[in-house]
Design brief:
Layout: H1 2-38, E1 43-45, E2 48-50, E3 53-60, E4 63-69, H2 76-80, H3 83-90, H4 101-105, H5 113-124, E5 129-134, E6 138-143, E7 151-152, H6 156-160, E8 165-170, E9 175-179, E10 186-189, H7 196-210, E11 215-221, E12 237-241, H8 244-268, E13 281-287, H9 300-319, E14 325-331, H10 341-346, E15 349-353, H11 358-365, E16 379-384, E17 387-392, E18 394-395, H12 398-405, H13 421-433
The structure holds adenosine-5'-triphosphate.
Region (Disordered): 413-450
GO molecular function: ATP binding; DNA binding
Protein name: FtsK domain-containing protein
């Protein structure tokens, strides 16, 4: 009897909170409209003052999507500028609870009820987060669960992402990865400090560990080597560049290899590396592609080099996939000038960190949204074959990255003393690729095994 009364009280309490939560949702539309009106998102038409008008409301697992007609005279960016007001307004009731029937069923009535309720309420006390989109109508997504603000990389991700998969991150309720075998080329864009290079580093570490024997890297680090230097002596790195002329050598050697393979495939009557039984995959990774854009280059000679780089990038993106070549390009300046059309056309995967404005978002994603991401490092919109998902990327810290890289480092041949830094590196690489004409004096190649 006592148990029945107790459990009824508990259920009634929980139901009360659940109602509060649900009615919170029910009120979201009127709140959004009030916030819009109070924060000046209105236009005057004669004597009337107009604001947004609800067209439809749809419930999803993650929350609700409200679609509004925007009065003439207001633009999407007017709403984006008021994103914080809209979100804060929806959260001004401090105790919104997201408790479902499943949560209630987890309560064990034989144990300390009060403690269990306290724990449940603590866990379920939720804030709402919003995202804005525009496709002729204003869409406001109200998420009932916050995205994680930071995720530490851990070793279980190596198990979760087998084959040619790499982690992308966590959504509000699931983990997603990217499969370079299914979608080979990727464009990564976002303002400075968003997490682009850290993502590229994580991709390299994953593939070094999960595809040790099959992966080949062509690393082009135009940020002065600060990002990829730790990988340059890895056995799997077949070419490495820090300057546009070195980048050209890297890219040329990649296109030559593609053409060589095309010829072999033709002779063997096979269409691609899968049919040819080739397990090797080449990753050309370029961190900051804007640095090899010919668009604003004043120096004639350098411009020529950059134009050739663009030509090779375009070739690799267009014809490389059947030969097992994948290209990942990253930029903090996503503009039409800096991202070659062929890269965009052929990169079915996109990763867009927060960008300055809708124009930049459209360059990366072909749609707006990247400019409305919250200012959270590692937060991005992942797009695979046109479908967008907001994710929080895991962060692989430097110490762990070094530990993962260390077993793959080999001692390379060094060039004669007095050689320039650039030719030193490329000669070492060319020798590895089998090119002739190097003047190396020392040939040691020692692999440290884990
Ligand atoms: N997923 C993440 N989660 C948390 N912190 C991160 C994440 N990724 C990067 N960071 C932090 O943000 C810093 C900047 O990241 P990163 O260098 O990758 O940015 P970026 O977009 O490449 O910037 P830039 O274009 O200026 O080089 C890192 O040094 C790290 O401290």
């Amino acid at each position: 009897m006592f148990f029945e009364i107790g459990s009824s009280v508990v259920m009634a309490g929980v139901a009360g909170y659940t109602f509060l939560y649900q009615s919170g949702n029910a009120n979201d539309n009127s709140k959004i409209q009030r916030i819009a009106a109070n924060s000046g998102l209105t236009v005057k038409e004669g004597k009337k003052t107009r604001t947004i008008q609800l067209l439809r409301k749809t419930k999803y697992d993650w929350g609700f999507e409200y679609v509004y007609r925007v009065p003439l005279g207001l633009s999407f960016s007017d709403f984006q500028n008021k994103r914080d007001q809209l979100q804060d307004g929806l959260n001004n009731k401090s105790s919104l609870l997201n408790i479902t029937l499943d949560d209630v069923l987890t309560i064990d009535f034989k144990k300390d009820l009060l403690q269990q309720l306290k724990d449940l309420f603590k866990e379920k006390k939720s804030q709402k987060e919003i995202e804005l989109f525009y496709d002729g109508a204003l869409k406001i997504r109200v998420y009932s669960k916050l995205m994680p603000e930071a995720i530490e990389w851990d070793e279980t991700l190596l198990e979760k992402c087998k084959g040619w998969k790499v982690p992308i991150g966590e959504t509000r309720d699931t983990f997603i990865s990217h499969d370079f075998e299914k979608t080979p080329h990727m464009l990564v864009g976002g303002s400075t400090g968003g997490g682009k290079s850290s993502f590229l580093d994580m991709v390299i570490c994953h593939l070094l560990n999960n595809q040790t024997e099959n992966v080949k890297f062509h690393l082009i680090d135009l940020k002065g080597g600060v990002e990829f230097f730790r990988f340059k002596d890895c056995k799997q790195v077949v070419s490495y560049a820090e300057e546009p002329d070195e980048a050209l050598q890297c890219l040329e050697s990649a296109t030559n290899k593609i053409k060589e393979l095309q010829e072999t495939f033709r002779k063997r009557g096979v269409r691609n590396c899968k049919e040819a039984g080739i397990k090797e995959r080449h990753f050309i990774i370029i961190d900051e592609i804007a640095e090899i854009s010919s668009a604003d280059e004043p120096d004639k000679e350098v411009k020529k080099i950059k134009e050739q780089c663009e030509y090779h990038i375009s070739q690799i993106a267009r014809i490389g996939r059947s030969q097992g070549f994948r290209i990942i390009t990253a930029t903090q300046h996503p503009t039409q000038d800096y991202v070659p059309k062929s890269v965009k056309r052929n990169s079915d995967a996109r990763l867009c960190f927060r960008v300055r404005d809708a124009v930049a978002s459209k360059v990366v994603l072909d749609t707006t949204g990247g400019e409305s991401l919250p200012k959270v490092v590692g937060r991005a919109i992942y797009q695979d074959k046109g479908e967008n998902t907001t994710v929080q990327l895991p962060y692989l810290e430097t110490g762990t990255m070094d530990k993962m890289t260390h077993p793959h480092i080999v001692i390379r041949a060094r060039k004669e003393e007095g050689s320039t830094k650039e030719s030193d590196k490329t000669n070492g690489q060319n020798r590895k690729e089998g090119a002739t004409g190097g003047t190396d004096t020392l040939v040691i190649e020692e692999t440290e095994l884990s």
